[in-house]
Batch of 3 targets.
Target 1
Amino acid sequence: MQTETPRKYKILIWVLSFVLPLAIAGLFTVRIPNVPRLGFLPPIYATINGFTAVFLVLAVRAAKQKKLTLHKRLIQTCICFSVAFLVMYIAYHITSDSTPYGGEGFIRNIYYFVLISHILLSILVIPVVLVTYVRGLTMQVERHKKIARIAFPLWLYVAVSGVVVYWMIAPYY
């Protein structure tokens, strides 16, 4: 018999899911004066997004092979990658102005489609990933599997589209 998700986890999940996107949006209006621009960070956090995608695929493979300890460690690594990405992303954007996209024509439309879908899904993926993780952590196996079928493709898209956005904007830094 599977148990309900503990209340403390539910509260934490919803607070993080609400506060993180608002804080990040608010930080786009903040510039720390007299600090060096951290222009070296975008390729690093794009690479971290790439690693996240690879480790997510490996984690799903490990779960399907019933290597549950490996699966758990890979997912925890993905969460650490996501936190590292977030810290670097915020550090870059509070020390640097946003880079306008310089492409034209059809490719511009593709860039904005990928960017906007990446942003919107990165907001949505926060509670989905956290709920999935907590359900695994609290051994709610069937509920974990059910939501993981949604979390995996969302998180994978966010990770991969982050790399694509970087590749497309990189020539304009």
Note: The chain is about 75% helix and 0% strand.
Target 2
Amino acid sequence: MRPPTAFGTDADLNLMDAIRVAANPDAIDKGVLTVLNNEIHCARDVYKANTLRVETFRANELGFLGYADSDGEVLFYRAPIRKHTSSTDFDIRDMTELPRVYIVYAYAGSDSLLIDAVRKNKSDGMVLTGFGSGTLPPTMLEIGAEVAQEGIPVVLASRSTAGKTVITPRITKLGFLVSDNLHPQKSRILLMLALTITKDHDILQQMFMAY
């Protein structure tokens, strides 16, 4: 977070910690890891919470995996249990591009303009990011449901930084998918990958619960 030219740079320390973690046998089968500020995070949960602070990488409310401390020890206290990396069904080695998926955010006074743009652009999928538990303004909910029922997968996510978007009978009836506790940006990546395999609604939803 502080470049080598800055006072109190953390560049060398973070690089050394990352190398130590990558070389540690306990890191095997834990997927992609992020190391910053002596903390080890799994790729699924980590997000950047501050623009400048050295502790900017956070792990939501679920916690980071372990420490790479100044005593030279790399210690893991927990491991990711969701499918990741080589345990997934995705194989994009021969692909030059992924399906197009766009994110549309809800805000006070938002309407259907951006949803209509995604719809007219014949996009492969969309992540609708609502308030709190994924709640949307009435217009966005109505148009988003129309898009979902036309066969474009639409995932409901939340602007909140913690918690999950849950499946309800109404959400199911309207044809939406839910993101579980993935942030909108990560929901987009998962939907892009999932669409390389299927557009089946039920299978897509299973993937959001498994990955």
Note: Residues 15 and 35 are 8 Å apart (CA to CA).
Target 3
Amino acid sequence: MQRGAAVAFSFMPPSPTPPIAAPLGAVQTERLNLRPFETTDLDELATVFAKPEVWEFPYGRAFTRDETQGFLDSQMREWAECGFGLWLAVLRAEQRIIGYVGLSVPRFLPEILPAVEVGWRFDPDHWGQGLAGEGARAALRAGFTALGLSEICSLPGSTNPASYRLCERLGMTLQRTIDCPPTERRGSVQARMYTINGEQWAERSAGHG
């Protein structure tokens, strides 16, 4: 190398996603078919997202059809890039889309990356039936077994007790509260960060048979 010549270094930022053992696929629970999103899901998903209760936290309003299209596109992209993502939740008895549940990368909170979050949103017509817990338990199982993750978090809003109480029922532990920076669609919000690791999940699963 010529003396005094500049040496070029390329900086690769750390991946926001922990390494995974294998890509994720569709899963079936007692009452739900859980699968990756498809372009043809837009009409039914837009009907669910048009209900203000679905996006009360953190937006305080419903999604427009264009926003639902953007959400759908981002989810299909995440599946392609990461090998996993949120599942579309289809009620098996009616073969009807009722929301989503599953795993995602919380890119809106760079300070905790790399990380994987379990989350859910359901049609309010199906609240109070244990479906979010059923889907979330399937997501945790897939995260720790199929994906081989060491830890999964959840980030419910501090003013959303229904979601953070579900985290507690799932065996997740509150670590701290976090101020999430504003985005183009909402102001700053405070979230509760819950976590569960693979060992804790295995112990809890064994205890529940």
Note: The helical segments are 42-49, 56-59, 65-82, 131-144, 161-169, 198-207.
